[in-house]
C-alpha cells in the first residue's frame, strides 16, 4: 500500500518537495492489533505545525515518518477481540492507504451518519466549534457572534451552533462564493468578504449592535476588524491563527481594545478537553443527522493528491472540510 512521509521541513510556504509517496508492505499483525483500510484522510491546518521543528501547539513530527492525520476506514484484519473485520472505525492512521492500530485510538462509527462527517462536523473540527461555543463563548440569545474562516470545517459549525442559540451570526470568508454559501446555505445572518478590501466598513455594517463574541480562526486583519466592533466584556475564543502560519509573528494592532472594552481572550486546544467529546460528538451527530447542521466538503481523489490538497487548504483553495478519498 502507499503512504506519504514528511521528506523535508518547509522553509516558508509548504511545497510538494516536502512530501514523498512511498510503497510499503502490509505488515503481519501482532496480538491485539487491527489492520484498517482507510476510506478518507482528513487534512487539517494543524499539520502545518507538525511539519516544522519550531514549537507550536502541535508537537513536531519526525522526518521520514508517515504524515500524521485523522482517518476513517474499515477493519480488514483483526487480532483484537474488540474490533471485528468489516467494522467502520475512526483513527489517527495518517496519510496512508492502510494502517495498523493497537485499538487504543480507534473509535467505532455510527453508520447512520456519512463516514466522512466523522472527520469534519462530527469529528475534531466540529468539537473545536462545540467547545469554543459552549465552554468559552456561551453566547446568549440576541448576542452577536463573529467567526472567521466561516465556510470551513470549524467555522461552519460555529455559526450554525450560534444560530441555534438565537444569536446574530456574522461570518468572515474569502470571496463572494464562500460568503453566499455561508448566508444562503448555512443560514448565517451576514458574511463579509475579507478579500474585497473594505473589511472594517463591511463588518461594521453587518454588526449594527457591535460584537459580543468572537470565534477566531484566522488572526491578523480578520481579528483586528472584529476587535474594532467589540462591546464591553466581549469574549474571544482563540481557536486558530491560520493567517500567520508562514510568518514568524502575527501582530494584533487593536490590542488596546482588550483593555478599553475589558475583553476576555481564551486560547484552547480541543484535544486537551477529551472529557467533553462524548457529549459533544453525540450532540453534533444528532444535529447532522437531523440536518440542523449542514456541511460541505472538498474531496481530493487518491493519496497522491494529498500534498497539493494540503497546500491548497493553507491558501484557502478548499471550500468546506478538506478530505482525501482513498477508496
Ligand atoms: P478550514 O476548513 O476553515 O480551512 C482553512 C481556511 O482558512 C481556508 O479555507 C481559508 O478560508 C482560511 N485561510 C487560509 N489562509 C488564510 C489567510 N491567510 N487569511 C485568512 N483566511 C485564511 O480549516 P479548519 O476549519 O480545519 O480550521 C480552521 C482554524 O481552526 C484553523 O486556524 C485551525 O488551525 C484551527 N483549529 C484549531 C483547533 C484547536 O483545537 N484550537 C482545532 C481545529 C482547528 P477563506 O478562503 O475563507 O480565507
UniProtKB/TrEMBL annotation:
Matches recorded under SUPFAM superfamilies: GroES-like (SSF50129), NAD(P)-binding Rossmann-fold domains (SSF51735)
Pfam family membership, one: ADH_zinc_N
Cell inner membrane keyword on record: no
InterPro entries (UniProt xref): ADH-like_C, ADH_N_2, ER, GroES-like_sf, MDR_fam, NAD(P)-bd_dom_sf
Domain Enoyl reductase (ER) as annotated: residue spans: 14-324
Keywords carried by this UniProt record: Oxidoreductase
Domain of life, source organism: Bacteria
Protein name in UniProt: NADP-dependent oxidoreductase
